[in-house]
Amino acid sequence: MRHHDLTLPVIDPAALIRYVIFSLLFVGFPSAAAELIGRVVGVHDGDTVTILDSGNTQYKIRLAGIDSPELKQQFGAKAKESLSSFLYAKKVTVEWKKRDRYGRIVGKILFMPANCITPACLQPADANYEQIAAGMAWYYRQYASELNPDDRAKYDAAENRAHVEKRGLWGDPNAVPPWTWRRSKKNTK
């Protein structure tokens, strides 16, 4: 019987540290949020925009934690108009952690409100929250686990207020959530 040498190679600790740092810099920190800054150059619907960064690269952004009516649904055009009034041509910051199956960045969009003269305007506004509060989007509870706890609570409360006050789509007692509408369209094909 032959004896095999089972000694492991010696790893240089400095080389290991360089490898780990290189990996984190170029692959990224898996749980850390990324930030993207740009100007909104397109509003596709009530929960999707295109931004252009300082290097003239375009990014399609899907607003996290919300789902607005599709353009062909009732309130679809109004939801797009609402989001456009908040964001179009504005400089924004997108906080994000993932891309969806279509390659879009999914994140929270922060912007500075226009024409505001109160101290509250010194803080960026959350476009995702604003769409829910205006009654132009549902809080997308299916993806709630991807939001931080503060945003979950804030979005839930905003939807409840909009519903009670019958703002936007909540003024229609038969409003159909977009995920239900999409499913019904898929089943009729």
Would you write up a description of this structure?
With 189 residues, this protein is an alpha+beta fold. It has a single domain (31-187), classed as Beta Barrel (OB fold (Dihydrolipoamide Acetyltransferase, E2P)), CATH 2.40.50.90. The chain is built from 5 helices and 8 strands; from the N terminus they run αββββαβββαβαα. It has helices at residues 13-27, 76-87, 127-133, 149-164, 178-187; strands spanning 34-45, 48-52, 58-63, 66-67, 91-99, 105-111, 125-126, 138-139. The strands form 2 sheets. It has a 5-stranded mixed beta barrel. A two-stranded antiparallel ribbon has the order 4-8. A hairpin with a 2-residue loop joins strand 1 (34-45) and strand 2. Helix 3 (127-133) packs parallel to helix 4. It is globular, with a radius of gyration of 22 Å.
